[in-house]
Amino acid sequence: VLSCVPGRGNMFPPDFAWGAATAAHQIEGGWQADGKGPSIWDTFCHQEKGRVFGEQNGDVSCNSYELWEKDLECIQQLGLTHYRLSLSWARLLPDGTTRHVNQKGVQYYNKVIDDLLSCNVSPMITLYHFDLPQALQDQGGWKSQEIVPLFDSYARFCFQTFGDRVKLWITINEPYVCAKLGHEDGIHAPGLKEAGISAYLVGHNMLRAHATAWHSYDSFYRPKQKGAVSLAINSDWFEPLDPGCKEDIAATERDLAFTLGWFAWPVFVTGDYPETMRSAIDSQSEKLGYGGSSRLPSFSKDDPTVLGTADFFALNYYTSRKVKPGGDSGQMLGIKSDRNAEEVLDPSWPISGVSWLAVVPSGLRKLLKYIKDTLNNPAVYITENGFSQVGPLQMEDVERCEFYKDTIFEVGKAIEEDGVDVRGYFAWSLLDNFEWADGFSVRFGLFHVDFSDAKRSRTIYRSGQEYAKTIVKYKRAICVQ
Ligand code: GBH
């Protein structure tokens, strides 16, 4: 067996997954094509002005529904070993249920998967990346526990239909973002602003849905299909603003508990939410007169077992924050006041295109080490990481080149020096795409997409060329017996 030895020029194991990622609603377009049902993001964009930059929407986007073969050319040009994509639930099951299957949708994803495999690229498939079928939102969406068996049926349908060829699955992408941005801040679909209540409920139902689908895979599909299933958890890396200050240290712990811990503790550590999170919510409830009702639900004996329902850790990492107490007056019900942690940027961190994305590659290494130490040393795939461009187009995107070079070097050190079991790295994103509320104004692609051109022509950025070289370099590096 070949293995790469530290100091011999390769920090990455020979079977390391080198990938790029996308999501259905961000690239496919074809929002009504061939029988697809509407999703909550279609509704969110169409229903009301002022929600998305420039009143843009994902109706056409990169038009990957019609131009998949162009995407495949991009994938091959990068020399990826893996490609992470998501399935549009409403393209496969227009009303969200298996009562009606849209065969055109099945054909589309069958072709994508078969084409990838024939080019020696392994698919990693996300079942849910923010785009709930509108028909299910109309029945209560993620706030309703009814969603759990519906998601499980959809998941089983996908395992049954595609699992002979797909070996890496993500059930839900970033439950934190769906819960908080979708149901507390209202800046993502379904656009609800129900601070301090709904996000916790949504997160709870997402954990139930994930766990139920994992158990289905484990019982009925794993024996034959032999794949692996997880959920993708997003987290920044957090550090105390003043490392010598007790209050800042405690605020940092709360912030980690409310971000990484919210979903990682139940699945990887205890089967329940972090104690820090529950006690912070309970004491705020007490203070604001919600004493009787627990806003953070509990898992009961009727729920699926959540602990242990991940075959690897899927991490979406973008940035880091310094933390101190505060961020809110503490008088308003909401996650911010529950968390009591104010996040600030270190002035030494450069900002990429979007204001939230401070460039801190070293934070990834620290977060990986933290995951190893606190979550029982799981195998880790970095399922998203990337850098955005805003404003005038630069095909020579030198800052993004530096970003990827520095970040991948940090991943290598996490493997080599910290012994973190990192199995793969997926750049976000293959293509410039529909960046949710920021529309097309924020470009995360390794390929530029010309959205003013009917053909949506794709052109590789300098960063795409450099990423391709990096992959070749690490795949060719000297490995010894
Ligand atoms: C990912 O989330 C998504 O999975 C992906 O679809 C998306 O394209 C990619 O990020 C790039 O944005 O607007 O100030 O409230 C990453 C985690 C959490 C990062 C929410 C942005 C919003 C900050 N995201 N955060 S703000």
TrEMBL record:
InterPro entries: GH (IPR017853), GH_1_N_CS (IPR033132), Glyco_hydro_1 (IPR001360), Glyco_hydro_1_AS (IPR018120)
Residues of the active site: E384
Keywords from the UniProt entry: Glycosidase, Hydrolase
One GO term of the biological process aspect: carbohydrate metabolic process
An example Gene Ontology molecular-function term: beta-galactosidase activity
GO CC terms of this entry: cytosol; membrane
Family: Belongs to the glycosyl hydrolase 1 family.
Name listed for the protein in its UniProt record: Glucosidase, beta, acid 3 (gene/pseudogene)
Classification lineage: Eukaryota, Metazoa, Chordata, Craniata, Vertebrata
